[in-house]
Amino acid sequence: MIALIDYDAGNTKSALKAIEAIGKEAVLTRDPKVILAADHVILPGVGAFGDAMGNLCKYHMDEVIHEVIDKKTPFLGICVGLQLLFEDSEETKGVKGLGILPGHILKIPASGDMKIPHMGWNSLHLPRESRLFQGIPEETYVYFVHSYYLHADCEDMVTATTEYGTHIHAAVEKDNVFAVQFHPEKSSDMGLKILSNFVSL
Known about the structure:
The protein has helices at residues 12-21, 32-37, 49-58, 61-70, 80-83, 188-199; strands spanning 2-5, 26-29, 40-43, 75-78, 88-89, 103-107, 118-123, 141-146, 148-152, 158-163, 167-174, 177-180. By secondary structure, the protein is an alpha/beta fold. It has a single domain, classed as Rossmann fold (3-Layer(aba) Sandwich), CATH 3.40.50.
């Protein structure tokens, strides 16, 4: 069973439907027992970094996430779920992230007529092998919605990048922790393939 963490973030229902679309049993929950018993755990969602982190703490999901990762359960962060795994964000100064991975969330710099937030399809560069991207071709297009982006401290964990006004670390992998800035649940067949790869771990 796959548990998606419910912390009042946007877009969690579409992530749940995508998991069900690939034929897997999934539940959207904030019950610690259910989450800790799950075979895979996903932190989906869109929203502001500070609000999202506040909700995680309000529901004690920050503690549960650390426990899940310590148990070596495969864990996937999506969009703001990726950002929360890192140390902090320029979006909400003074609010600490989960600090599970080293790096910072920065604002996409304004450049010419480039629109922010970044909303739309961008191609991925895949610099190294990743279990998440097995069978995914170089330059695959996926769907993004964000104004802030990851700059990971360690390039070795970066498994996908894209360009939008700057060099964006679009996906990371470290041990049992995976995270993507884009929305696989909105990225057509290739997005579903990425989710299938995750739940097959």
